[in-house]
Amino acid sequence: MVKESFVIVAPSGLSSRPSAALVFEANKFDCDLELHYANDIANMKSIMNIMALVIGKGEKFEIVAKGKDEVAALNHLKAYMKKTNLI
């Protein structure tokens, strides 16, 4: 298991379009991916789970990856979020 914390810097937060893109990227991997925010846990491969969290600008969240390609998944998602100015 690997995990890392991030802070949303995008003005619109984790809205529908970035959520959909993040789910698309997460589904490229076989490992289990969870997004932890406040006291909630969302499956990162489900758009409804991610959008239900309503994460706004300046909010801190954590990604937890568990499985055979966990390190690659976390590194990819981190790079993707930086590239798209989400974090």
Number of domains: 1
Specify the helix fraction band: 25-40%
Q: How far is it from the N-terminal to the C-terminal residue, by CA? A: 22 Å
Strand order of the largest sheet: 1-4-2-3
| Number of strand elements | 4
CATH level-4 homologous superfamily: HPr-like
Major sheet description = 4 strands, antiparallel
Describe this structure in words.
There is one protein chain. The chain has a single domain (2-83), classed as Histidine-containing Protein, Chain: A (2-Layer Sandwich). It is 36% helix and 26% strand. It is built from three helices and four strands; from the N terminus they run E-H-E-E-H-E-H. Strands 1-4-2-3 form a four-stranded antiparallel β-sheet. The relative contact order is 0.31.
Write a concise synopsis of the structure shown:
This protein is α+β, with helices and mostly antiparallel strands.
Pick out its properties:
4-stranded antiparallel β-sheet, 87 residues, 3 helices, globular, 26% strand, alpha+beta, Histidine-containing Protein, Chain: A
